[in-house]
């Protein structure tokens, strides 16, 4: 039997949108007999397009030992499987992505082709039969991506090294795209085994965003997906790109803890905004760039669905690494001691709400915004409570988040110098 529920988001952020809501105001849920959840986020956006997403709650952290990159290579194989040429016929644009804890496939297309597009994607998720030729083809594509895009940026190596120091050689300490030697060893049997283990209806959900009748959407999903799961070291950074010195510090965070402690995670998100602002207004910018004049820029990055709380900047000579690091911790300490100002709290709350709203401003943004909330374990009925949770955040909550950074949370840092005379300084 299919269980169906609907959830009202009400007048979420209406005042920020000037009256018309961009975010979906209804999210319906159904559960297929196999256990696969299906969500329909109805949008008031008049666009005739639909966004279809298949979310899997597994990613790079589930790679077998010594086979980093397996989840990502499998994503390539599945994304291409029986899909090439098919989606274009329906005017659809599709892509996929793998992170540490999830994999997602999506298609954006004219609404009248919903049945054909969903059936095409579901067909790519049939039981695995990937062979050596398929794996070799995608291995080449992955290597091209790895060395043609990611590793041309030397900072990607720095972040990899920092995560390795925090998380070791497993889990978040590995590369989602895969280590070179590991990628060479991945076999068809291993990607097929990963699929069999993790591509399970209970570990996945389908999300449709746009103007579509919920009963029709549920019927199409049941028809398309009924068969799915039915059977079951020292840094060595060399590049002429970076002419300025870089500072990076990262604190160890855990995505699974985020799913259990959402109020604390919202406080950490607000702390990141208080510290980083918009790049030119945060506490760190005022302290390090304006007041102490030891940096030309500084910023903060934190996402609950990704490991790590990052602070990064460009130190200004003659500031040394120790001076810069001490200034960063002093800024965090000041928040831990006295908390953010009311102006910082008000701006941070407004920014969190605005990011949520503007993230829903188009089908693609809405799909990722809602999908990431669902991945965090936020029940559909509670997604509307995000606004209330943000409003309820107090100075003491942000102080606690700051105390975590300077107290119990493990962190590591790196200083990356400019290239001079062919050597990294």
Reconstruct the topology from this structure.
Elements: E1 3-8, H1 14-17, E2 26-31, E3 37-42, E4 49-56, H2 70-80, H3 86-89, E5 93-98, E6 103-110, H4 114-124, H5 132-150, H6 154-167, H7 180-185, H8 188-198, E7 204-210, H9 214-225, E8 246-251, H10 255-260, H11 262-276, H12 283-291, E9 295-302, E10 309-315, H13 321-338, H14 342-359, H15 363-375, H16 385-392, H17 395-406, E11 411-416, E12 419-420, E13 423-424
Helix pairs in contact: 2-5, 2-8, 4-9, 11-14, 11-17, 12-13, 13-17
- Uncertain regions spanning at least 5 consecutive residues: 1-22, 233-242, 419-425
By DSSP, the count of extended strands is 13
> Taking strands numbered 1, 2, ... along the chain, how are they ordered across the largest sheet?
1-2-3-7-4-6-5
Percent helix: 40-55%
């Amino acid at each position: 039997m299919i269980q169906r529920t609907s959830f009202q988001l009400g007048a979420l952020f209406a005042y920020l949108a000037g009256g018309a809501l961009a975010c979906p105001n209804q999210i319906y849920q159904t559960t297929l007999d196999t256990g696969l959840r299906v969500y329909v986020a109805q949008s008031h956006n008049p666009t005739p397009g639909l966004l279809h997403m298949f979310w899997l709650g597994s990613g790079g952290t589930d790679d077998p030992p010594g086979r980093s990159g397996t989840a990502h290579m499998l994503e390539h194989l599945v994304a291409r499987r029986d899909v090439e040429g098919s989606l274009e016929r329906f005017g659809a644009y599709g892509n996929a992505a793998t992170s540490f804890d999830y994999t997602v496939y999506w298609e954006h297309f004219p609404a009248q082709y919903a049945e054909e597009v969903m059936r095409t994607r579901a067909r790519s998720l049939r039981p695995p039969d990937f062979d050596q030729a398929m794996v070799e083809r995608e291995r080449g594509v992955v290597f091209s991506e790895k060395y043609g895009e990611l590793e041309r940026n030397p900072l990607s190596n720095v972040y990899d090294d920092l995560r390795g120091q925090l998380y070791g050689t497993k889990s978040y300490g590995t590369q989602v795209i895969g280590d070179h030697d590991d990628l060479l060893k991945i076999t068809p049997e291993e990607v097929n085994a990963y699929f069999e283990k993790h591509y399970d209806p209970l570990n996945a959900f389908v999300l449709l965003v746009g103007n579509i009748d919920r009963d029709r959407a549920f019927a199409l999903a049941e028809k398309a997906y009924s068969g799915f799961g039915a059977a079951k070291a020292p840094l060595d950074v060399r590049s002429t790109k970076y002419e300025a010195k870089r500072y990076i510090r990262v604190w160890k965070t855990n995505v699974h803890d985020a799913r259990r402690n959402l109020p604390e995670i919202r406080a950490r998100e607000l702390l990141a905004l208080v510290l980083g602002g918009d790049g030119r207004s945060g506490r760190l910018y005022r302290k390090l760039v304006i007041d102490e004049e030891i940096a030309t820029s500084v910023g903060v990055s934190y996402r609950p669905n990704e490991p790590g709380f990052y602070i990064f900047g460009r130190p200004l000579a003659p500031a040394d690494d120790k001076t810069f690091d001490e200034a960063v911790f002093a800024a965090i300490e000041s928040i831990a001691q006295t908390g953010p100002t009311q102006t910082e709290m008000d701006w941070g709350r407004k920014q969190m709400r605005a990011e949520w709203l503007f993230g829903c401003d188009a089908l693609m943004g809405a799909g990722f915004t809602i999908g990431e909330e669902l991945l965090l374990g936020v029940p559909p009925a509670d997604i509307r409570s995000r606004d209330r949770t943000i409003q309820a955040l107090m100075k003491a909550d942000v102080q606690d988040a700051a105390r975590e950074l300077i107290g119990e949370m493990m962190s590591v840092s790196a200083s990356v110098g400019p290239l001079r005379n062919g050597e990294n300084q």
